[in-house]
Specification:
Layout: H1 5-12, H2 22-31, H3 38-48, H4 59-69, H5 72-81, E1 88-89, H6 90-100, H7 107-117, H8 121-125, E2 128-129, H9 131-138, H10 185-193, E3 198-204, E4 212-213, E5 223-224, H11 225-235, E6 244-250, H12 254-268, E7 294-298, E8 318-322, H13 333-340, E9 347-351, H14 352-355, E10 361-363, H15 369-375, E11 380-383, H16 386-395, H17 397-406, E12 409-410
Parallel strand pairs: 3-6, 6-7, 7-10, 10-11, 11-12
Antiparallel strand pairs: 1-2, 3-4, 4-5, 8-9
Helix pairs in contact: 1-2, 3-4, 6-7, 10-11, 11-12, 16-17
């Protein structure tokens, strides 16, 4: 709760001499939600120190506060809603909240705000606000533009996963530039701490049979896949309980793919989604159903009997899968040049152990909306460059929306 101005002044006056040095005034400013550049505040302090004693008292303190908080736009706003001289009654304060801040409030809530932020007891008795109280309200969390009700989940989270925008990151492992900057597990921790729900892992063969993550064909540094799994386990659900998608860009040998699968199962444990949560074969599960779960996006082997319609374990030990989509759809020129030098029929050998971890986010190449509608299932998803996604949105916006209500798309 905000403190009345005079109470805050008394509290900041540490030695109770009714004078305020600059350090004490900084403490007072913090107590009443006033943020100011230190040099600017110091300049005002020196201007108000008429007695040159390095301390302000009485009228000097009032002048310091008045100059520091003077905002012409707030003066204009207050004057529009004040009815009595120097006072904004509760009914006009309610009008301000309704028309200026678009808040739906009751008379009781308005009175509670006045009681909370108004420093003048005389004004409180009239159920009104002075300009000081109005300013303190505007500087508070209650007066912020952000709707505090939205700090908690207020949307319906029981719809299929494809019905939601998902906070995603590109080249998550990089701390700085795309070509020679450092890779770090700290980058994954930062992304997850900010609520990111889709992480990218560029996986390559590493020494001692341990896969590494880095930006392929560049000079970026490398980090161990196993260390990234540990970071994901520890931070996946700190900021949000809703599912995390691990997007694998896989360039590893069969042996190191098996190591990747082992690390994910061993480290992530029950967090790792290994089977559908229900028997729904027409839609993706909801974020609510997938709370606390980590999904793997990547290539998947087909079953001989079921083909694309089946999203369970494959019955092949290993097989070739197309390697045309993930790297080819990245916008980085360094990667694109290497990919373009490959054959169009370039294949990647995929291990069954890694394939079986892909339940809902099977990575497939995007051909067209028509092809996706006829040949792809809800459990498949495609990655698009930002340029391609923008072009599709401009040229076929309605089809793009319909496509993304059934399948997850990543851009």
């Amino acid at each position: 709760d905000a403190l009345p101005i005079y109470n805050a002044l008394r509290k900041a006056d540490k030695n109770k001499d009714n004078k305020m040095n600059y350090k004490e005034l900084k403490s007072f400013m913090k107590a009443v939600n006033i943020q100011a550049d230190d040099r600017y505040a110091k300049k005002i302090f020196e201007k108000c120190d008429k007695s040159n004693t390095q301390a302000l008292e009485d009228e000097e303190i009032e002048e310091f506060y008045r100059i520091l908080t003077q905002r012409k736009e707030i003066d204009v706003l207050f004057s529009e809603y004040e009815k009595m001289k120097g006072l904004m009654p509760s009914d006009t304060f309610m009008e301000f909240l309704t028309y200026e801040q678009r808040k739906m409030v009751s008379a009781e809530q308005v009175s509670a705000l006045i009681d909370k932020y108004e420093p003048s007891e005389a004004a409180k008795k009239q159920n009104a606000m002075t300009k000081d109280g109005f300013l303190m309200y505007l500087l508070s969390e209650d007066g912020g533009i952000f709707n505090v009700e939205h700090k908690k989940v207020y949307q319906d989270m029981t719809l299929p996963l494809s019905q939601y925008y998902i906070s995603s990151s590109h080249n998550t492992y990089l701390m700085e530039d795309q070509l020679k900057g450092p890779s770090s597990t700290e980058a994954y921790i930062r992304a997850l701490s900010r609520g990111c729900r889709c992480l990218e892992l560029d996986c390559w063969n590493g020494p001692n049979s341990e896969p590494v993550i880095y930006h392929g064909y560049t000079l970026t540094s490398k980090i161990l896949f196993v260390d990234v799994m540990k970071a994901i386990k520890n931070y996946a659900f700190k900021a949000s309980p809703y599912p995390v998608i691990i997007s694998l860009e896989n360039h590893c040998s069969i042996d190191q793919q098996m190591v990747m699968a082992k690390h994910m199962k061993t480290i992530l444990g029950d967090m790792l989604l290994m089977a559908p949560p229900d028997n729904n074969l027409t839609d993706l599960p909801s974020p609510e159903q997938l709370k606390g779960k980590i999904l793997v996006k990547g290539k998947k082997l087909k079953r001989v009997d079921d083909g694309l319609a089946h999203n369970g374990p494959s019955n092949a030990e290993a097989a070739d899968v197309s390697d045309e989509d993930e790297a080819a759809e990245m916008e980085d020129e360094s990667v694109k040049n290497h990919v373009s030098s490959k054959s169009e029929s370039s294949k990647l050998k995929l291990a069954k152990e890694l394939s079986d971890l892909v339940v809902y986010c099977k990575s497939v190449h995007f051909r067209s909306f028509e092809y996706a509608k006829e040949h792809q299932t809800f459990s498949e998803m495609s990655s698009l460059t930002e340029g391609k996604a923008s072009k599709l949105a401009n040229e076929s916006g309605t089809q793009f929306i319909v496509h993304n209500t059934k399948q997850i798309g990543r851009a």
